[in-house]
Amino acid sequence: MFDTALLLAAAFVAGALNAVAGGGSFLTLPALVFTGVPPVVANATGTVALLPGYMAGAWGLRQDTEPPPGLTMRRLMVLSLVGGAAGAALLLVTPDATFRRVVPWLLLVATALFAFGPQLRARLAGGQPSAARATVGVLAVACYGGYFNGGLGILLLALLGLLGQTNLLAMNGLKNGVSALLTAIAVVIYAAGGIVQWPQALLMMVAATAGGYGGARVARRIPAPWLRGGIVLTGLVMAAVFFQRQ
């Protein structure tokens, strides 16, 4: 009963957090590991659980979604699917011990990129980003998301900022859509590889979906500085937890 309550609560808050600005897997991954699921399987299972939440969040912010400079929606969709598939395939061949060592560093990198996104964009700014830079950036982040869902939303927001988007609501809508696409193809590969624990995944899907749609509506009422500060704090706390577990 305690494990069930923990997984439901983590999935609900994670769905809302993903819809608002990202970082939901910072909660689902530790919750699954705490209940005895191996790290690689926990990552895949948590990703499956959050897929409906990504879809619900994208639908909730559909009116604000627009592609970043240098990309069309069609190219963005193709890059998301290709990168997500490549990252998921890489996860299938990663041992648990290796994944456990890599996780906190991935969390720190994602959090730092989001925290210093505006400064990075100002330093790299030299006119509109080229289509090549945008293509490589989206493909790399999609591959990351297919491999490790934790911090995906944070990394996507950082990338969109570097590519020239400034409207946080538009960035959130696009982030949710890209996350849904690359996660969908990753889930197919995880399932084929047999690394999903379906009872936990299906249980968490329900809570994540409710949290995802509700969080998308709440995002319109939260000041942007509060969003940014809350995301950075969540990333730092979860990275510290995983470092401590090592």
Structure description:
Helix 1 (2-20) packs across helix 10, helix 2 (25-34) runs antiparallel to helix 3 (39-60) and helix 8 (152-162) crosses helix 9. The chain is globular. The protein has helices at residues 2-20, 25-34, 39-60, 73-92, 96-115, 117-124, 131-147, 152-162, 168-193, 198-218, 224-245. It is built from eleven helices and no strands. The protein has one domain (2-245). By secondary structure, the protein is mainly alpha-helical.
Query: Proportion of β residues?
Result: under 5%
Counting DSSP E segments of at least 2 residues, the number of strands comes to 0
The count of domains is: 1
Contiguous helical run count: 11
| Low-pLDDT runs | none
For the residues shown, what is the average pLDDT?
Answer: 80
* Major sheet: none
What is the CA–CA distance across the termini?
28 Å
Q: Approximately how much helix is present in the residues?
A: over 70%
H/E order of the elements? HHHHHHHHHHH
Overall 3D form: globular
Q: What would you call the quaternary organization?
A: single chain
| Structural category | mainly alpha
Please state the CA-atom Rg, rounded to the nearest Å.
16 Å
Transmembrane segments: 31-55, 76-93, 99-118, 177-195, 226-243
GO cellular component, one term: plasma membrane
InterPro entries: TM_pro_TauE-like, TSUP
Keywords: Cell membrane, Membrane, Transmembrane, Transmembrane helix, Transport
Tags for this model:
mainly alpha; transmembrane; single chain; cell membrane; Probable membrane transporter protein; 246 residues; membrane; transport
